[in-house]
Design brief:
The chain is of the alpha+beta class. Helices cover 23% and strands 23% of the residues.
């Protein structure tokens, strides 16, 4: 199992942020405007003129920061044991180190109709696409496009047809 500790502080008590665990697998966020806490539902504000209502809790997250479980602080020593029991009940990681995250892409399944997806893919399959490269700074300081297969190897097809582009924008 791969675990990390991520802590959120809503009040700054000293001038520097330090990892509470000292581990390289931990992260410490200053949440002085309550945005992180509000996104995870542990901090609520019903009116801009009212103060934030904060409900301290432990959230167990998956590697993509989706919430698996929420454990409100009950007061008392049982909290850590409940969290530890839950985490130990999760399936064991069998694959050594977790895979490195892929490129920052957005996957939106079932947004386009299947037939339209096939129409978008067909020109790439017919023409094979064009090799894309990377941008680098040359010896004069200019940014130039180069093909560097050690950095990236990919082929793209640019959809030029105005009708297809308009259909995609309206989807």
């Amino acid at each position: 199992m791969h675990c990390s500790a991520e802590s959120v502080a809503i009040r700054k008590t000293s001038g520097r942020a330090a990892s509470p665990t000292g581990s390289r697998d931990s992260c410490f966020f200053w949440d002085l405007d309550y945005r992180i806490s509000a996104q995870y539902g542990i901090c609520i504000r019903t009116d801009d003129t009212l103060p934030w209502t904060y409900s301290p809790a432990t959230l167990v997250l998956d590697p993509n920061h989706r919430v698996l479980a929420v454990f409100p602080f009950p007061g008392g020593g049982a909290h850590a044991a409940c969290v530890a029991d839950y985490v130990s009940s999760l399936p064991r990681w069998e694959g050594g180190e977790p895979a490195a995250p892929g490129p920052p892409i957005l996957i939106c399944p079932r947004v386009l109709e299947r037939e339209f997806c096939r129409e978008l893919i067909a020109p790439y399959e017919r023409h094979g696409g064009q090799e894309t490269g990377v941008m680098r700074t040359d010896y004069t300081g200019r940014t130039v496009h180069i093909i560097d297969r050690r950095a990236k190897q990919r082929r793209d097809y640019v959809i030029e047809e105005p009708e297809t582009r308009a259909r995609f924008r309206s989807a």
